[in-house]
Amino acid sequence: MWMTELPPFVPFFLAALLALATRGWLRGAVMLATPVLGGLHLWFDVPDGTLLSVSLLEFELTLMRADRLSLLFGYLFHIAAFIAAVFALHVRDTSQSVASLLYAGSALGAVFAGDLMTLFIFWELLAVTSVFLIWARKTERAIRAGQRYLIMQVASGVLLLAGALVHYRQTGSLAFDFIGLEGISGTLIFIAFGIKCAFPFLHNWLTDAYPEATPTGTVFLSAFTTKVAVYALARGFPGTDILIYIGAAMTCFPIFYAVIENDLRRVLAYSMINQIGFMVCGVGIGTALALNGAVSHAFNDVIFKGLLFMSMGAVLHRTGEINGSNLGGLYKTMPKTALLCIVGASSISAFPLFSGFVSKSMVMTAMIEEGYDYLWLMLLFASAGVFHHAGIKIPYFAFFAHDSGIRTQEAPRNMLIAMGIAAVLCIFIGSQPQYLYSLLPWEVDYWPYDTTHVLAQLQLLFFSALAFVWLNKAGLYPPELRSVNIDAEWLYRRLLPACVSFVRRAAQPLAGVLQGIRQNYWQTLQTMYCRTSLADYHLAASWPTGSMVLWIAVFLGGYLLLDAIL
Amino acid sequence: MKQADEKQYLFDRVENVNRLLRGFYTVCGILFVLDFILHRHMTHDWEHLPGFYAVFGFIACVVLVLVAKEMRKVVMRKEDYYDVDD
Q1: Less crowded by CB within 10 Å, the N or C end of chain A?
Q2: Which residues contact B23 (CB under 8 A, 6 or more apart)?
Q3: What is the mean pLDDT of residues A27-56?
Q4: Domains of chain A, residue spans
Q5: Chain B residue nearest residue A319, CA to CA
Q6: Angstrom distances, CA of residue A249 to CA of A43, A209, A253, A427, B12
Q7: In this structure, how many other beta carbons lie within 10 angstroms of the beta carbon of residue A503?
């Protein structure tokens, strides 16, 4: 079709230009055709080992490096872009269409980048293109959340650039391969990846911004940024011990927040951190089985988390509500959406025959094989917890629970089709995992379906559900409340501004003194000025700028008039 | 919005909810008993405890919810908490 070495981001960037020039159904066709053609090209024409480099100044930039790892993410991002484009087909907003194509293209650029400089460029492009999907909501909250999101994302890019430059000084190479935590460059790059990966204390950009984006924008957002970061960790830091502990923390702490959070898309954002935790653990363990588990879980997560975000997006689109406290009983009017949401919920909970099961179990098995007993227990706790908040809470509070009295319509057809495709993929991958396994980058002999495993997982999940039923019946389950729960973001949204205003108040007396000095100085200057002959000049009198502008306008108007008369 | 003469939906009838719950309890019971019937590969000492996964899942979720509920006392603020002076 196209030349083999065509970097996969190029069609998306060209399509963004086309989307700018077209309208209506034609633009819709462009948005759908791009991931399909790009994906087919990648699948049929691009073999493992394809390379494309260009020289820029003294650097050799590798725009395209196709190996089994980057190709897997390449296929995934094409699928995700296609599903999200179908979901957003009804959107008539140029900025969103263009931004989402550029965003998907940047994600592809980043995973196929063969050197740190190219990675940095796409890393920053991911930030600046995606923020428009948040701002497109056009509410005050969304604009502020978008600003905070952009600061964090750009900071991550700056750290990456600094790390890359130090790395270049030390090694003389910009190649993006194993980096490791050695030295300052490794640490800088590690933190840069950590921000995009939502490590604890660096995670609030995700829970802050994703729920504020448009219903369709969040679907795009959930697919790319964090998965690029997981890819980058798997490439640069496999087998880095500290990742296992970071990952285990990521699986556990968000589920507590998810239980008490009211905004259902924010619940999903917390559960996203929980799922990334499993991937980070896999990368940290670093065995072939664990790494395969990490990347295959990233693959499945994009699809099932996308499905869940789509179902909540459809609810928000139809009802204008997303708080659990205001929803309930929607199965009556949105039964198809409810069913598709349950498929996504079953997948994220890792029910046997659904996609989460076949990838999460690889990480869990690798963990126990390597002897991390207590961390394994933490992951088991998180597995029960994810079922609790994402598997049960999301569908239950949106579609069942108490009847909110809201009567709406089923989601639009394009949304149902997009959710349908994702749901079919969830079940297909879950029941026929050999096809996904054959794409995995590392050689491995693993099969998830045996009596031991299936029974253990079913017991874990059913008794978690039993706990939910019991807590609900006993009235112990915390009700959904309209509220904000403070998290690490409190440090920069409350503590830091408070410190700044405290310092300002404390410095008030000092400022008064300075003000006095300045006034004195100013008056002296004025008296000195008044003594000069210049002060008598009429136009130099201290008139406001407005009068100057007015006079200029009068002069120009006069010229125009004269010009017309003569 | 809700209408007075609205039709009855699946879970509006209490007996349907109860039927669903009874089925669910039965499955839980069967799964628990299967633990003692089926042969399984134990890779870990803890797994030798009878009904380890079932008990763990139940306790984990109860602990999760009760701790999260207590957490509310510390972290919960009004909805406009950040909007003031932000």
Answers
A1: C
A2: none
A3: 91
A4: 1-236, 238-496
A5: B1
A6: 36, 22, 6, 29, 41
A7: 9
- Chain B residues whose CB is inside 8 A of the A400 CB are 11
What are the pLDDT digits (tens) for B67-79? 999 999 888 888 8
What is the reported pTM? Answer: 0.89
CA distance A380 to A386: 10
Contact A478 B72 (CB under 8 A): yes
Rounded to whole angstroms, the Cα distance separating A329 from A469 reads 17
More confident call, A49 vs A145: A145
Q: Which of A141, A400, A464 sits opposite B57 (nearest CB)?
A: A464
The span from the CA of A436 to the CA of A415, in Å, is: 25
Which chain B residue has its CA at the smallest distance from A323's CA? Answer: B79
* pLDDT tens digits for range A103-133: 999 999 999 999 999 999 999 999 999 999 9
Q: Which among B25, B61, B72 has CB closest to A468?
A: B61
CB A388 within 8 A of CB B64: yes
**At A64, which helix (H) or strand (E)?**
strand A59-65
Note the pLDDT tens digit of each residue in A427-461: 999 999 999 999 999 988 899 998 888 999 999 99
Q: What is the pLDDT of residues A42-67, one digit of tens each?
A: 999 888 888 888 887 777 899 999 99
Q: What is the mean pLDDT of residues A258-276?
A: 94
**Of A482, A30, A388, which is closest to residue B62 (Cα–Cα)?**
A388
Question: For residue A317, which of A418, A387, A226 has the smallest C-alpha distance?
Answer: A418
- Locate the chain B residue with the closest alpha carbon to A330: B9
Residue B85: per-residue pLDDT: 53
Identity at A60, one-letter amino acid code: E
Angstrom distance (rounded) from CA A473 to CA A476: 8
Instruction: Name the strand (E) or helix (H) holding A519.
Output: helix A508-531
Asked if A255 and B35 come within 8 Å (Cβ–Cβ), the reply is no
Nearest Cα neighbor of A130 from A178, A67, A66, A84 is A84
Contacts for A304 with CB less than 8 Å, ≥ 6 apart:
A344, A347, A348, A354, A355, A356, A422, A426
- Which pLDDT value is given to residue A238? 96
DSSP single-letter state for residue A234 = H
Amino acid, res. A371: G
Give me the helices (H) in chain B, please: 14-37, 52-75
Instruction: With CB atoms and an 8 Å threshold, state whether B58 touches A466.
Output: yes
What's the length of chain A? 566
Do the strands A59-65 and A51-56 form a parallel or antiparallel pair, or are they unpaired?
antiparallel
Determine the pLDDT at residue B2: 45
Interface ipTM > 0.85:
yes
- Whether A401 contacts A270, CB under 8 Å: no
Q: How far apart are CA A559 and CA A553, in angstroms?
A: 10
| The pLDDT of residue B1 is above 60 | no
Closest CA to A276 of A230, A225, A207, A239: A230
